[in-house]
Amino acid sequence: xxxxxxxxxxxxxxxxxxxxxxxxxxxxxxxRACDDLACGGRPNMRAPGPCTCPWPCHGWAAATTDxxxxxxxxxxxxxRRARAIxxxxxxxxxxxxxLDNANAVAWAREHLPPSVSVATTRGEHWIYRGTVRSVNGxxxxxxxxxxxxYARWLGPGTGLMADVPAAVHELVKVKPAARTAPHAVAVPxxxxxxxxxxxxxxxxxxxxxxAEQQIAAATSRVHAAVYRTFLAVLSAHGRCGCLTExxxxxxxxxxxxxxxxxxxxxxxxxxxSAALGM
Length: 278
Hints:
By secondary structure, this protein is α+β, with helices and mostly antiparallel strands. The chain has helices spanning 4-13, 67-70, 73-81, 102-111, 166-173, 201-217, 222-237, 245-257, 262-275, and strands at residues 18-21, 84-87, 94-99, 116-119, 124-129, 135-139, 142-145, 151-152.
């Protein structure tokens, strides 16, 4: 019997907003339209995405303390496949400093006050009272998870909880270091070795430039805009082998300039590829 939903229900009693996570730590989509994140994932609270759910059904926005939702038939399929419990730190009024390796843990011990800590597979989570802006890659091996983010529930931890320290407030003010472009994504050729339909390199260049402009122009629902743009680029240029690492890097750079993390760019690209059967 899967004890994960039972544990999740117990956590809601303590005011922790929870959601089911896959084995790869990603959230589920909890309705058919969003299953396997076909909608692109990561909605904001005001725009849950192209589904008919009466609540945001995926990502951090789905986390809830409502036992009727956690125990609903709508979420039952996700809980049956879940391998972990996620929670929304900001919704619980806390901040998780995710220390991803031994060097990051050593840095925290030198620069941060002790607080509740939980061991992870590669490092530790240090949990503080109070909320801040979430930042992935705030420094080497350190992610800050609080508002508009989720973390994996790993147990109650040990120690006494302290307030978010000044050093963390400073970290979230600093613009993360420049992120590297992704490796080239292999896309299959047309069946039978079809020829490239592009009339000239200018056609592809114009398409990439327009995609960059569309991402840059997004003022809301950035996650959805990035996914739709990636989907359009792959639909037009993904099967003939013309997309290079440089093209994909430009798209990822545009998305990261709007606040997307490398991981979320990769997720959106992978989801768009899967939606097109690539």
